[in-house]
Amino acid sequence: MNKIMISPSRYVQGSGALADIGKHMALLGENALVIGGTRGLQSAEKVLTQSCQENNVAFSLEHFNGECCRVEIDRLVLLAQNKQADLIV
Q1: Which of 7, 9, 38, 58 is the 20 to 30 A CA-CA neighbour of 24?
Q2: Residues near 87 by Cβ (< 8 Å), separated by ≥ 6?
Q3: Domains held by the chain: number
Q4: Residue 8 lies inside a defined structural domain of this protein
Q5: Is residue 4 part of a domain?
Q6: Is residue 48 part of a domain?
Q7: Between the CA of residue 81 and those of 32, 49, 86, what are the distances in Å?
Q8: Stated pTM of the model
């Protein structure tokens, strides 16, 4: 039986890694839609804002409604299009 793993080409973790997120985002786009849960977005917003400002990356925060379904995917796709996001985090 084959085992297949699909993953991003870059995975960063470690103490303080979030402070570098703007640098990594800037390699991929200029206008990001950042999707997450309420607590995750709240806890990351300050560091995300500073890192993105330092790296000239604009972003919008959007709450994920908790279920990966066609309705939620379509909602987020439309939002990304309306915000002209070229990167989704």
Answers
A1: 38
A2: 25, 28, 29, 30, 31, 32, 33, 57
A3: 1
A4: no
A5: no
A6: yes
A7: 11, 21, 9
A8: 0.86
